[in-house]
Design a protein that fits this description.
Elements: H1 2-48
């Protein structure tokens, strides 16, 4: 019985870790997109100078 509980707890832990990885990857893409926009804006200002 204890082994079953431990296996179930481990499975929930793995599912939680995998879902967090997807969230972090999505956040990384958002940050990258924001950085690209800042870079584009900086290049536009540099061209105007």
């Amino acid at each position: 019985m204890i082994k079953k509980v431990m296996v179930i707890a481990a499975m929930f832990g793995m599912f939680g870790a995998l879902s967090a990885c997807n969230t972090v990857a999505g956040m990384g893409k958002d940050v990258q997109s924001g950085g690209e926009k800042v870079q584009d804006a900086a290049q536009d200002v540099q061209k105007k100078m």
